[in-house]
Amino acid sequence: MLTNVERLHELMAQAELDAIIATSPENVTYTSGFWAMSQWIRRGPQAYVLWPAPSRGDSCLIVSSSALDLVADQNPWVRNIRRYEHFVVDRAPDTILNNVDQRQAMLHQLPDDADPLNALCTAIRGNGLDRARIAVDEFGLLPGYFEALQARLSACTLVRGFDLLRRCRALKTGEEIARLRRAAEIAENSIAAALRVARAGASEIDLARAFHEQTVREGGFPVLGCIGFGPRSAMVNVQPSGRKLQSNDVIRFDVGGRYQHYRADIARIAVLGEPSKKLSTYYHALHTGVRCAYDVVRPGAAASDIFLAVVNAVRSDGLPHYQRSHVGHGIGLDGYDVPALGPSSKDIVEEGMVLCVETPYYELGLWGLQVEDMLVVRHDGVESLMSTDGGLIAVTE
Questions:
Q1: pTM, two decimal places
Q2: Per-residue pLDDT reduced to its tens digit, 301-310
Q3: Does one domain contain both 117 and 195?
């Protein structure tokens, strides 16, 4: 199970909740183990998880009938399923079915609740929660659905619950950390694969192809692939183009795939040939900033204090005009989890958080530089998920 059950129940108790409903893709997967493909690839499809408080009934997964094949194949830990919408899957009477197809056939025999809100309301009433205080993750609902749900459950008190689930996801379980560790490892290996084709005349697309091929080869799925050369590396969201690698070009990687639904987000910088003095000086300062985070990130540390320490470290080590809106964020099922390491953040670092600590710098017309590591907050400090140290990488011409 991915869910940090103890933390979720603690947060629900603090908010005096009888149940919480997950609706957004990350929260549905987090609370059920079910990856609803349609939710992850386009806006609009509805899948929900009703998670009651202890002694208030069993969790229930609500999905479209067209997604029952995935439920049967993934076999999520939430066993109570409700389906909605008419969807036909034929079967010849003399066909022998394997285990997955047998489960799918059984799921199609469940009552059709017609629409997602009706299915959800039926599950709520079935658990005796028709007069309960329920938090609803509003982020995955279609416009008007929150109000429609309140109208159908007029005796319930509905409050918004996306933030509570997001705060719960901030503290990772051991299984989550293992997946994040592997995602980071795949990203580093994929950068190495891309650099193996980095030579004068190779294009950004050539490196991106090598990067993503390695990601897939190692069991990951491509998500983030900002790879830019020379002045294009200063484009914050650079997308690989046909631009050819030239002598003394910076190569900026801000990249990461997904492994078993968990994200990686790291940054590394290489240069073809000898780096200039300015590049070396600035990069050293940025690297110092990230290494500073390793010293100041502790359970109980304020995110805003971490921001100040990292920025000041960069400024004092060779980049005095350095400015940033943040120096990192949490990561997990979502690319940006709690906490936000920014100057006005109210977040407090806790043991079990997984952070991306970063110090990007962009100078138009010249290059973009960036160091970004993934680390786990432990009781006595941090544990790096990286196998490389983030130093400037020299590529031989």
A1: 0.94
A2: 999 999 999 9
A3: no
